[in-house]
Amino acid sequence: MANFAEHISHAKKNLLFLEEINGKLTCQYWDWNVTVCYYVAVHLVNSHIASISDLHYRNHEEISNALNPYKKLSLTKFPEKVYLAYNQLQNLSRRARYLISEDLKNRSVDANLTREKHFKRALVHLETLLEYITTSYDLSILRVRINCPEAKSAGLKHFEIL
Predict the structure, then answer these.
(1) pTM for this predicted structure
(2) Which CATH number do you get for residue 47?
(3) Furthest C-alpha separation in the chain
């Protein structure tokens, strides 16, 4: 299984991919931007888990349990804000991939398309994860240039909003 450094390397590679596709794709592909944000987060989360334990989780439920701040025995739990950001990013990615509401209680059969406002939310949640991981592990990650006018006022440290 991958170690801390390998997961960080892959997260950085995915951030560069996000910058590349965001700069080349038109606004009709917000779903791909959101999905890449989620996969950056997956590697950030797995880097955290790998740094603390030899455990390697294979599904979303196991990872959620490992990160859950209310699991008293978990060695890899996140602060609540970071845990919620990861969950929200996962839900936005599910929306982008399956056209369903990110609200898991919403059982509507209507298609839920992903728009710029959802990408902005994904960036904000990813920012929370990036800030936690870079601060906790004293890492430096280059700012990523992103075209998302709705995110200009979000004050994102890890993203240069064009």
Answers:
(1) 0.92
(2) 1.20.120
(3) 46
Pair of tokens at residue 26 = 């038109």
pLDDT digits (tens, 9 = 90+) for 79-126: 999 999 999 999 999 999 999 887 778 777 678 899 999 999 999 999
CA distance 10 to 12: 5
Cross-strand bridge partners of residue 160: 145
Residue 12: CB atoms within 10 Å = 17
Total domain count, the chain = 1
Domain that holds residue 15: 4-161
Q: Cβ distance 154 to 131 under 8 Å?
A: no
